[in-house]
Structure to design on (74 residues):
């Protein structure tokens, strides 16, 4: 018999970390008071977005010629 494990939800406030149920009486990010407050405030949500962007690795430069190859036979 195979047992299945449930995926651990990630914390939207601490990017890259799992939800640790740090608030009392919560079952995950969906009913976390802190997540509710941050996501309901435009400034806090924008600050969280900027923090996530800073953590991302830089994207490699794209070659414009590779994005739009010329048609065959031209």
């Amino acid at each position: 018999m195979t047992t299945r494990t449930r995926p651990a939800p990630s914390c939207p406030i601490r990017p890259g970390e799992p939800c640790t149920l740090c608030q009392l009486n919560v079952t995950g990010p969906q009913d976390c008071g802190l997540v509710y407050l941050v996501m309901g405030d435009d400034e806090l949500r924008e600050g969280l977005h900027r923090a996530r962007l800073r953590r991302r690795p830089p994207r490699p430069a794209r070659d414009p010629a590779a994005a739009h190859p010329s048609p065959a036979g031209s």
The chain has three helices and no strands. The first helix runs from residue 33 to 40.
